[in-house]
Amino acid sequence: MLQTHVEMTKTIHRMGLLLMGILAVAGAYGKPLKVYILAGQSNMQGSAHESTFAVMGDDPASAPLLKVILDKEGKPVVAKNAWVANRTQRGGEDLTQRGKVKVGYGFDDNRIGPEYGFGLFMDQSLDEPILIIKTAWGGKSLAVDFRPPGAGPYVPSAREKENGKTPAQDEIGHYYREMVGFVKTTLKDAGEIRKVVPGYDEKQGFELSGFVWFQGWNDMCNRHHIEQYADNMIHFITDVRKEFNSPKLPFIVGVLGVYGTDPDSRRFDKGLPVTDFRREQFKAVQEYDAKVMPKFQGEVISVDSGPFYELALSDIYWKRRMTGEWKRRLKDGRMTKEDYRKECLKFDFGDGELTAQEKETWDRGSSNAEYHYLGSGRTFVRFGKALAEAMLELEKK
Q1: Longest dimension (CA), the chain
Q2: Confidence band (pLDDT; 50, 70, 90) for 396?
Q3: For strand 206-214 and strand 82-90, is the pairing parallel, antiparallel, or unpaired?
Q4: Where are the beta strands (DSSP E) in the chain?
Q5: How far is Cα 58 from Cα 65, in angstroms, rounded to an integer?
Q6: Does domain 28-310+368-396 have CATH number 2.60.40.10?
Q7: In contact, 153 and 172? CB cutoff 8 Å
């Protein structure tokens, strides 16, 4: 049956809109696809549940972010021109995800890591299409799991030798190789890139534009690893740049910020050498810059996640955790009521019960443990934005 004039007009209009959409994706900008690599362990994976986003509106400093991450209906936005290829594990199983930047590239389909804030703000700031290649696995160290080739063989500590816990040879550097392999596979050819970015324009090509590293908890918990972290990080940066033939690749080291910028001032978990470890991360960047030729200096920087850690939320976390343990001791007779009261008084915990305000703050703002930045969307979005801003500044140089 022949189409009427009106039907033909509608068909042409729909085809025009479809063509416009394809062109928007497929290089209508006349610029190459910008590729950013994000890598690390569990905090690069991301623990922040989308249910914690709304609390950002309570603070005038973070409230404007809601206009970027939520649509008019209050739902998390999906990026217009930024995509993710994500390689990780969930439930012990390997997982590969591809698609536009959105909620769901974290621990589960409702959580985010730094890629969400980073991707949305890069998308907002750049005219070019963006591809984020993210590789992150929980519980991994730089000393062993991500060990770069330039760092040489892993030398076990005396304690590891004594306890028979020397890492197997195939474990050393395994996730470094996985990371590099996934990046190279994703960028192998136009067909592979189009699995992530459907309208990728091969004529425009792509450019490797930056690398973000966010990792550290497992090394921080091991003094032997802390002692070698700066050297290992320097080798990691050097080897990554060699792997991708990009000697001036902008590189950001995300500094561990659990317990904020002054961990020693905290009342809880005093046995962890967080301050010592943070010092090594900053030191790695400084020493790398001092070793390279002047023309390569200033292309590696650190971005501290400490300012974005929710200290007030952490206080509630520790109140819940510590009083919970004391209550268990009370119940089985390992603690007296008097001792319970003394401990509560010592830490300013009142009667040991959460106040109504503390409970509301906890329920709205947290979704995980303190070593996962309390699963705070406010933390991960703001830190992702800070990484994007730092990357944009690096690219201006």
Answers
A1: 90
A2: confident
A3: unpaired
A4: 33-40, 48-49, 82-90, 93-100, 111-112, 130-136, 206-214, 251-255, 300-304
A5: 11
A6: no
A7: yes
Residues with Cβ within 8 Å of residue 205, at least 6 apart in sequence: 32, 33
Rounded Cα distance between 81 and 89, Å, is 26
What is the per-residue pLDDT for 1? 41
What is the tens place of the pLDDT at every residue in 335-389?
999 999 999 999 999 999 999 999 999 999 999 999 999 999 999 999 999 999 9
What's the whole-number mean pLDDT along residues 182-196?
A: 98
What type of residue sits at position 376? Answer: S
Token digits for 363? 């329920």
Structure confidence at residue 284 (pLDDT): 97
Tokens of 82: 């930024």
Task: For residue 40, give both structure tokens.
Answer: 């690390």
CA distances from 267 to 163, 185, 217, 280, 340 (A): 32, 46, 19, 23, 18
pLDDT tens digits, residue range 45-95? 999 999 999 999 999 999 999 999 999 999 999 999 999 999 999 999 999
Distance CA 239, CA 4 (A): 64
How many other CB atoms are there within 10 angstroms of residue 357's CB atom? 9
Q: Which phi and psi (to 5°) does residue 217 adopt?
A: -55, -45
Sole residue written with tokens 């920087």: 301
- Rounded Cα distance between 56 and 261, Å, is 21
The span from the CA of 47 to the CA of 37, in Å, is 19
Average pLDDT value for residue range 302-330: 97
Q: Where are the domains of the chain?
A: 28-310+368-396, 314-365
